[in-house]
Amino acid sequence: MNVLNVMLQAQGGADYSFLIMMVAIFAIMYFFMIRPQNKKQKEIANFRKNLEVGQSVITAGGIYGKIKEIEDNAVIVEIASGVKIKVDKNSIYADAQAQANK
């Protein structure tokens, strides 16, 4: 029992430094990983809300095309002259013209 008391007292001073270290690690992870990812997700969600007919887009599969029709949860994309595919709105990731300008 005496050994246990000595060990607990020896580690008592390290509790605050461990707590400070854990808070610092969480803060670093938040500002360098979590916050940028949340910002990116909000930008993509806003982009999907503002889709317009005639807009050039890129799908998650890497298919470039123009929006011909917008439905509730899907988008009709023309990928070639006369070739149209139906794509889920959640798989539209980028504006093709904005990507070309980068």
From TrEMBL:
It comes from the Bacteria. One of its GO terms (cellular component) is plasma membrane. The chain crosses the membrane at residues 16-34. InterPro entries: Preprotein_translocase_YajC. Its main location: membrane. The keyword Protein transport applies. One of its GO terms (biological process) is protein transport. Keywords: Cell membrane, Membrane, Protein transport, Translocation, Transmembrane, Transmembrane helix, Transport. It is found in: Cell membrane. It is a single-pass membrane protein. The keyword Coiled coil does not apply. PANTHER family: SEC TRANSLOCON ACCESSORY COMPLEX SUBUNIT YAJC. Belongs to the YajC family. This is Sec translocon accessory complex subunit YajC. It comes from Phocaeicola coprophilus DSM 18228 = JCM 13818. The gene is yajC.
